[in-house]
Amino acid sequence: MERVPITVTVNGRRISAVVEPRMTLADFLREELGLTGTKLGCEHGVCGSCTVLWDGAAVRSCLVLAAQADGANITTIEGLATDGTLHPVQQAFWEAHALQCGFCTPGMVLTAVALLAENPNPSEEEIREALSGNLCRCTGYQNIVRAVQLAAQHERART
Amino acid sequence: MSLQILPRGKWVGARVKRVEDPRFLTGEARYLADLQIPGTVHAAFVRSPYGHARIRRIDTSAARALPGVLAVLTAEDVATLPPLASGLPIEGLKPTPQTVLAKDKVRFLGEAVAVVVAENRYIAEDAAELVEVDYERLPAVTDAERAMAPDAPLLHEDLGTNVVYQKVTTLGDVDAAFAQADRIFRRRFHTNRFVAAPMETRGCLAVYERASGQLTFYSSTQMPHMLRLFLSLFLGIPEHKVRVISPEVGGGFGQKMTIYPEEVVIAYLGRVLGRPVKWVEDRRENLAAATHAKEQIIELEAAVRNDGKVLGLKARLIGDGGAYSFNTASALIEPLAAAGIIPGVYDIRAYQHEVIAVCTNKSPVGAFRAVGWTAAQTARELFFDEIARELGLDPAEFRRRNVITSDRFPYTTITGMVYDSGSYLESLERALELVGYEDLRRRQGELREQGRYLGIGISLYVEPTAWGSEIALQAGFPFPSHDNATVTIDPTGKVRVAVSVHSHGQGHETTLAQVAAEILGVSIDDVIVEHGDTDRAPWGMGTYASRSAVIGGGMVALAAREVREKILRVASRLLEVAPEDLDIQDGNVFVKGAPDRSLSLFQVAFAAYLDGRVRAEGEEPLLSATKFYDPRATYSNGCIVTVCEVDGETGIVHLDKIVAVEDCGTMLNPMIVEGQVMGAIAQGIGGALYEAMVYDENGQLLTDTFVTYALPTASDVPELIIEHLETPSPVTIGGIKGIGEGGLLATPASVAGAVLDAIWPAGRAIEQLPLTPERVLAALGGETGA
Q1: Is the pLDDT of residue B227 over 80?
Q2: Sheet of B653-663, strand order
Q3: Cβ contacts of residue B142 below 8 Å, gap of 6+?
Q4: What is the reported pTM?
Q5: Bridge partner list, B641
Q6: In this prediction, does ipTM exceed 0.90?
Q7: B294: region left, alpha or beta (phi > 0 left; psi from -120 to 50 alpha)
Q8: In angstroms, rounded to a whole number, what is the distance separating the alpha carbons of residues A125 and A148?
Q9: Would you call A102 and B504 a contact, using CB atoms and an 8 Å cutoff?
Q10: Between B553-575 and B601-610, two packed helices, what is the crossing angle to 10 degrees?
Q11: Are B332 and B165 in contact (CB under 8 A)?
Q12: Residue of A142, A144, A145 to mutate for B, most B C-beta atoms under 10 A
């Protein structure tokens, strides 16, 4: 299998690599770059644990090949906090007890970040729908919804 | 031993934010798949594509020839490893040993037949596909009753039957109860096979150092010390050279209790290859080959008086155990646990049950949150609703007439469970009040006239919690219990709490720190809780069966109290007062009534370690204590009420709201309690409406991805209103009871009850879950749903 050269920006860092054509973006991030915050929960595009931001949009990295990410601007969970300060969505998840085992959390947080970037004042129904592509087995979702509402509230108060 | 050793001040009972959250929020938390050790090689299992087949031949040559492949093993190569079998000493339970790789035949789709190890996971999976297995297919049996028939295909030929247990138990004067009844009712239920499906699949990593003979085994497990014990015994590695580390665990729910064949195989490979060997399960494997749960056929019969009083019950409970009576708790984990809880919160003094456990060509059944109790609760509550309607009684009123009232505690049930305390009637009334029951009934009537189906489901439950020896036995299982906590204060006054329980999402690093902080008079920021590493945590059983608040909280309290006494003794010598005249608050040890006479905990601890003058003859100077706790039996309770509307055209159920009033005694952290309740309710919604493991008659699993096995999403969970009652246990330290399973125990009954309540005037009973739109429509159509 002919390997493919790619250049991808991950959490602000420009990275050049040579990848097998069939390597998924998720595996590239986790295995090649050691960014294990992105999780694999199903590898068939349902659970959302593998969600990363691709040019700001929430994308399932298990369904994308690393080779396809050439030229992309990727943000993983590791790239969210700045200088040790939690992103408002991360902070809100903490306050609202929106995580238990934490496995779905990176995907949930990034999906929420993408939602609020597009819709800074979502209704509860809109939040639930936006999160319906991220499975959580621990929390029952209610606190996650509250966290997103809290984050939205904080952002509105700040701006 | 005094139980009243848990004060309530700043920390215990407070809604404290979790101290462990930052590492999970930032992606720093490392689960099994995230561990990266140089030189690691990867394993992939070859699994049976058939439900029942003989293995004629396995050809591994093509797989072994693939570049990057280190080894391919089959049952022959691991013949020295003993099979796994349940060690439960229950008379009449037939053993079904399970070899770690299938030998001679496969008994369920997904059973591991061979294992491939390669330089990376991609190559390992490529090679796994190259392993050729020549199967001779056998007729499969996937229905438990069919499996009981004398001419059914046999899974374990040497047993001569698929029935591994069958026993009738008669309690009280059942004949008299049935003779005196005004009415006899009967109903049969087939509860669905559904699974834990934690977001993190199983996985393990074996690191064996040849020169020292030391095995370090990482596994996403709920029971690190038990895993160490089993690995030592199965592999013949001396236990002092085995270390088990359970890293962050992404959910367990019982599915990650010890021990799996894959764990034994990976440990073996680690030793044989001398390189770290890692296995991470994919989701298809998790759905097909990790343990299943909850499927039972329960036939109930009730002897009832016209006023609604239940005089006696009969139950026949058939547990569909899957291909092996799994080693953790055997195929009895469902039907035997269910049998004990059928009477539930109701004052039933005559009860006969027949417990049957059967093998079928499906994945083996193991523990999953509210073992056996979910199926029992579902069957019994739906049955009682039906009886109530037949008698013309409101379902809430029917429950009032049968419930154990609070003046009866401690109440010993006919099955031998000793309910220590509770609030059964109180939780019912409060839940009905919160949901606005009277108004809802009125509204239901109005909507019925418009041809709309509004339903209210009531599920009133008692929940055995905190599996120590006594309650496990009361639940029917002679399961051992042994747990310890070590509390240590370092020279600078910081606190370490090492515990044998192991968090997989329950927040122990916060709740157990709250207990230590309360007793030691420090902030939880000065406390660290260690768990999961057998080298750092004292010996114990781990976390399952809602035991960690009671057992963890209790043993931490005991150990912290002893360390507190040591601190006060040292401080008393430094301050020249009696220890009784001292208190500790916010990290300061001070004289009561003269708070300016104080020392920081730093100063006291430093002196305790390094100043010989504060020691006395006969004392142990080290600021550490290790305490054991195996609690008395304690039972939580609650009431879950669901409001739903059923669409008569589509059969789709719209959940309007779910109210849960729960009582787990003294709460360490109400925020964590609510999280547990809500998560369990969501799983219950899945079990009621969406989730089922479906096999065809050949043992082909039709639900092996998240596309076909549908977990509830954020759009599927309605508003959850949670309220707490707090009836402390009189028999546990601090009055704490377990919480964690009630939501899954009671919610399927509540949701299904609401659906049936909605449609009952128009339709018939439903005997099977999940309540798919097809089943609901069939019931509305007047025929029994299939």
Answers
A1: yes
A2: B453-465, B634-646, B653-663, B719-725
A3: B51, B360, B361, B362, B695, B696, B697, B698, B699
A4: 0.98
A5: B458, B659
A6: yes
A7: left
A8: 12
A9: no
A10: 80
A11: yes
A12: A142
Reply yes or no on whether the pLDDT at B468 is more than 70: yes
Beta strands in B101-162 (DSSP E): 105-106, 112-118, 132-137
In the numeric block, which tokens belong to residue B675?
């999280």
Which residue of chain B is at minimal alpha-carbon distance from A96? B17
How close B201 gets to chain A, by Cα (Å)?
Answer: 7
Mutate which of B35, B205, B248, B713 to test chain A, going by most A C-beta atoms within 10 A?
B713
| CA gap A50, B210 in Å, rounded | 37
Q: What is the pLDDT of residues B490-504, one digit of tens each?
A: 999 999 999 999 999
> What does the block give as tokens for B32?
């099994």
Total residues found in chain A within this entry: 159
List of E strands, B11-162: 41-47, 53-59, 69-74, 105-106, 112-118, 132-137
- Which residues in chain B are contacts of A94 at CB distance < 8 A? 17-18, 21-22, 25
Segment A106-125, tens digit of pLDDT? 999 999 999 999 999 999 99
B351-358 β-sheet, strand order: B163-171, B351-358, B310-320, B296-304, B183-190
Q: Nearest chain B Cα to A90, which residue?
A: B25
Residue in the block written with tokens 């912290």: B560
pLDDT in tens, B9-51: 999 999 999 999 999 999 999 999 999 999 999 999 999 999 9
Shortest CA gap A133–chain B (Å)? 7
Residue contact B714–A128, C-beta within 8 A: yes
Strands B653-663 and B484-489: unpaired
Cβ distance of A78 and B200 shorter than 8 Å: no
SS3 state at B152? coil
**Beta carbons of A24 and A40 less than 8 angstroms apart:** no
Residue B596's Cβ-count burial label (10 Å; 0-12, 13-18, 19+) is: exposed
